[in-house]
Write a structure and sequence with these properties.
heterodimer; A: 350 residues; alpha/beta; Rossmann fold; four-stranded antiparallel sheet; 12 strands; 33% helix; B: 342 residues; mainly alpha; MetI-like fold; 2 domains; two-stranded antiparallel sheet; 15 helices; 80% helix
Chain lengths: 350, 342
């Protein structure tokens, strides 16, 4: 009994920001999203605990296929079902009106969920080339969202779209609102997506690899823009990326994901200077750093990511872990707070 | 936009001229001509001597210009078409070809367009319906029916429907547009009695033409449904559809405003090529059902080498094909900015 109590207490402490529950806008509790395919069940998200602070930026990093996109698509309920299904957990959103709602319990076709999408949580995607409808002018695609969530005339909504294009620093917004996506460059389209996402003043912006498909110089501009608009619009940002450099520039907190779970969560400085999980350490060692000495070679993480369909006993990272101990093969480590605000799922720190 | 239409139209005119030339050449390809048939007719049925029959045949050739070189014949045919609006003279019907075609073209187009509209509308709606239900029972049943429909030969379906109409429903007149009592009824809506008669005539007309419409349209339904289903599946997985959902649109709005217009793209593109396909469907069905349309006219004129009818029919089919493509191009430009601006 006392054992379960302490476990609950510690995992709760891990979830909630050190600033306290008042400053949390979104909490995921033990979220599990599985895909039921013919060849087996893929546990894409398998017990994620993470919180997003109001007006803060959460960086979510991990290899391809670790479940970072699926986690936040689950938050928007954009998982195609079948085959995908949220099988367990809670997604608690603290809404603008003060209510707290569990998104998992909402019907994906319900009015309530549609009111959240776009108005409270907005999303931008990796491929700016395909994330806009090629048949409609960009202004109309922005005003469509505005009209949906705010009662105003079409003309006012288009004016709002024009204002938003101006806010994302697109020149000649009055001309651009009438243009079609194919007339814009990749960077411009991503600006339009950001304008679209922020047009209804959402409290959370989920950015799923927003700069991966862009040139490096454009990447920097887009990141600058996001930071600038974050303070203007008072939004929290969830930045999903595999680029640790981007995370170090943008994030307040970082969640490192591996095999559908968060294995480490800490303030950004802690992650880079005091990483606890061997996977995080491995990730940091495999990234080139400008000015590092030549003999300090990049160290890859050995082994391969196991198949998500394998039934894994113990820690999912054990077979690739340089510090694996006996217990790592037997029992899965619990995700808990080891230092204030710094949680990890690793037996090394127990 | 205007420039785009003018450009396309100019090209179309050139293409039509080319089609006229090819139609004319194709008609000349089989050995012999109408006069040869006339000659053997005189010998077998009229008891004329071979020499006499040949003299008559040559006179016939002279009268209708069949003895002149082919380029001249073609020139005269085109010249009369452009200057007098005359498509030539039918040897068998002893009438102006233009009149013959004018009589049948509206009915033919009525049948073809009805078949086309039905098959497009039903096919697209069915495709939109089954796409989000991929691999469900409804989807599989629809696919099964679609494959059967597109595999069955049209003439066979026509015969089967005719058999059913005559022997099961005991409908008396199947190979006509109207039952005899309605043939002379005028289309008029001046008085209540007239309107009632016209209404009854319309119902009677529909009773007679539905098999042709259905038969000509069936293959199209299957094809449109499969194409639309495939397009919808592609589009529903596209990123912009996820964007649309993440705005908070209802699933219906996502489909109507975003997925369907994009999925319609390939369907509109092949509208141009589908018109002759419909005419061909109408042709087969009408021939088996014995309806007097252009299809049956073309068949008989080809049999007895009534060249001006046959060439004119081919030309008309060609013009319809070109017109269909032109309309498809313009509709596509209206729908898709990428076509319009390039």
């Amino acid at each position: 009994m006392s054992m379960t109590m302490s476990r609950q207490a510690s995992s709760r402490a891990a979830k909630i920001d050190d600033g306290g529950a008042d400053d949390t806008i979104l909490e995921l509790r033990d979220l599990r999203t599985y895909f039921f395919l013919e060849r087996g069940v893929v546990k894409a998200v398998d017990g994620v605990n993470v919180a997003v602070g109001r007006r803060k930026t959460l960086g979510v990093v991990g290899e391809s296929g670790c479940g970072k996109s699926v986690t936040f698509r689950s938050v928007m309920r954009l998982i195609q079902s079948p085959p995908g299904k949220i099988v367990d957990g809670e997604i608690l959103l603290h809404r603008k009106d003060g209510d707290t709602v569990d998104i998992v319990k909402l019907d994906p076709r319900s009015r309530q969920l549609r009111d959240i999408r776009g108005a409270e949580i907005a999303m931008i995607f990796q491929e700016p080339m395909t994330s806009l409808n090629p048949l409609h002018p960009v202004g109309r695609q922005i005003s469509e969202s505005v009209l949906l969530h705010q009662s105003m005339s079409r003309r006012a909504a288009l004016e709002r779209a024009e204002e938003m294009l101006n806010r994302v620093h697109i020149a000649d917004p009055d001309r651009r609102i009438g243009e079609y996506p194919h007339q814009l460059s990749g960077g411009m389209r991503q600006r339009v997506m950001i304008a679209l996402a922020l047009s209804c003043n959402p409290s959370i912006l989920i950015a799923d690899e927003p700069t991966t498909a862009l040139d490096v110089t454009v990447q920097a501009q887009i990141l600058d823009l996001m930071r600038e608009l974050q303070s203007e619009f008072d939004s929290a940002i969830v930045l999903i990326t595999h680029n640790l450099g981007v995370v170090s520039q943008m994030a307040d907190h970082v969640a490192v994901m591996y095999m559908g779970r968060v294995v480490e969560y800490a303030p950004v400085y802690e992650i880079f200077h005091n990483p606890k999980h061997p996977y995080t350490i491995g990730l940091l060692n495999s990234v080139p750093v400008l000015g590092r000495k030549e003999d300090n070679r990049l160290v890859p993480i050995t082994g391969m990511v196991p198949s998500p369909m394998d039934e894994i006993r113990g820690c999912a990272f054990a077979e690739r872990c340089p510090d694996a101990m006996e217990i790592c093969w037997e029992q899965s480590p619990e995700f808990k707070e080891h230092e204030p605000g710094h949680s990890a799922a690793c037996w090394l720190h127990d | 936009m205007i420039g785009f239409i003018v450009r396309r139209f100019t090209v179309s005119v050139a293409v039509v001229l080319g089609i006229a030339l090819v139609s004319f050449i194709v008609i000349q390809l089989p050995p012999g001509d109408y006069a040869d048939g006339y000659e053997s007719f005189l010998i077998e049925q009229g008891g004329a001597t071979e020499a006499e029959a040949e003299r008559q045949a040559n006179l016939f050739r002279q009268r209708y210009g069949l003895d002149r070189p082919l380029p001249i014949q073609f020139y005269v045919w085109i010249r009369d078409m452009v200057t007098k609006g005359s498509f030539g003279f039918s040897f068998a019907y002893k009438r102006d070809v233009g009149e013959l075609i004018a009589e049948r073209l509206p009915r033919t187009l009525l049948l073809a367009v009805l078949a086309h509209l039905t098959s497009t509308a039903v096919g697209i709606i069915a495709g939109i319906f089954v796409a989000p239900r991929q691999y469900s029972i409804a989807d599989n049943v629809a696919a099964f029916i679609a494959f059967i429909l597109s595999a069955l030969p049209r003439f066979w379906i026509a015969l089967a429907i005719m058999f059913f109409l005559v022997f099961t429903l005991e409908q008396e007149h199947v190979t006509a547009f109207h039952s005899p009592q309605y043939v002379v009824v005028p289309w008029a809506f001046g008085t209540v009695a007239e309107a009632r008669e016209s209404w009854a005539k319309l119902v009677d007309l529909l009773q007679h033409i539905w098999p042709v419409v259905v038969i000509a349209g069936l293959g199209g339904v299957a094809r449109n449904m499969r194409v639309m289903r495939g397009n919808m599946l592609d589009e529903l997985n596209a990123q912009y559809v996820t964007t649309a959902r993440s705005k908070g649109l209802t699933e219906g709005q996502v489909m109507r405003r975003h997925a369907v217009p994009n999925a319609l793209h390939p369907i509109i593109m092949y509208q141009g090529t589908v018109l002759p396909y419909m005419l061909q469907g109408e042709l087969q069905a009408s021939i088996v059902m014995g309806l007097p349309t252009i299809g049956t006219l073309l068949l008989t004129s080809l049999r007895n080498e009534d060249i001006y009818i046959a060439a004119s029919c081919l030309l008309i089919y060609g013009v319809l094909l070109v017109a269909g493509n032109l309309i498809a191009d313009i509709s596509l430009a209206v729908l898709d900015p990428r076509v319009r601006f390039s």
